[in-house]
Amino acid sequence: MGVNQSEAETGDVVSEPTRRELAEQAVRSAEADRLVEALDEVLRERWGVRECDVLLVDLRLVVLEPVLGVDGSSVPLVGTAAGRCFNEQTLIEEKCDDHVVLHVPLTVRGDRMGVLRLVFDEAPPVTREETRLLAACVAEQIHVADVVTDRYRRTRRPQRLTLAAEMQWQLLPVRAVESGTFRLAGQLPPTRCGATTSTGSTTATRSAWR
């Protein structure tokens, strides 16, 4: 790596970005609805990843929904490595016959969003700290992207919502928040919505999910 004359005179040397920094730059510079594609591309090139995906927890906290998954299969929170990663908020390494899978929690200030899934052909060449910091960056960027795209909100909804449920979910606060002095968590599912006649009497009650 060359150093120009001004750098040599001042003693300041510009170092090459690390593979984690390159991955974070790719995510931050990507379009809001293309974050996961940008991450997949840079990790294949820089980290030697065979496959990458982001799994977002659904609104009912039952399954993890893949953003890029070709087959669109949901991953249960119970009885799976990804579910254990989400529930225990710890990195899980899953060794399979011909590959290794890393499951890394995606969390923003205590709010559990999902899991970053990385598939390697062999033992991962990256450290746990690298993957943890990258996952934190990805979670933050998805959280910010929710303001300008509904892609990730739609991923979290495996079933169509009624208008009433949609409005209620938009008004609810996050499930959890964490600070240096406190931790707060809770879950408020939408109520059941009744159909009302012109006279004001309730004729039927239906689930917010349909």
Describe the structure.
This protein has helices at about 5-10, 20-30, 35-45, 80-90, 130-145, 150-155, 165-170, and strands spanning about 50-55, 65, 75, 90-95, 100-110, 110-120, 175-180, 185, 195, 200-205. With about 210 residues, it is of the alpha+beta class. A hairpin with a 4-residue loop joins strand 4 (about 90-95) and strand 5 (about 100-110).
Structure characteristics:
about 210 residues, alpha+beta, 6-stranded antiparallel sheet, two-stranded antiparallel ribbon, 7 helices, disordered C terminus
Low-confidence stretches are: 193-210
Largest sheet: 6 strands, antiparallel
The rounded distance between the terminal residues' Cα atoms is 59 Å
Physical arrangement of strands within the biggest beta sheet: 3-2-1-6-5-4
**Oligomeric state of the chains in view:** single chain
H-E order: HHHEEEHEEEHHHEEEE
Counting helices, strands and paired strands, the structural category is: alpha+beta
Taken as a percent bin, the fraction of beta residues is 25-35%
Mean pLDDT: 80
Rg value: 21 Å
In short:
Helix content is 33%, strand content 25%. The protein has 7 helices and 10 strands.
Architecture blueprint of SSEs:
Layout: H1 5-10, H2 19-29, H3 35-46, E1 49-57, E2 63-66, E3 75-76, H4 81-88, E4 92-95, E5 100-108, E6 111-120, H5 128-145, H6 151-155, H7 163-171, E7 176-178, E8 183-185, E9 193-196, E10 202-206
Antiparallel strand pairs: 1-2, 1-6, 2-3, 4-5, 5-6, 7-8, 9-10
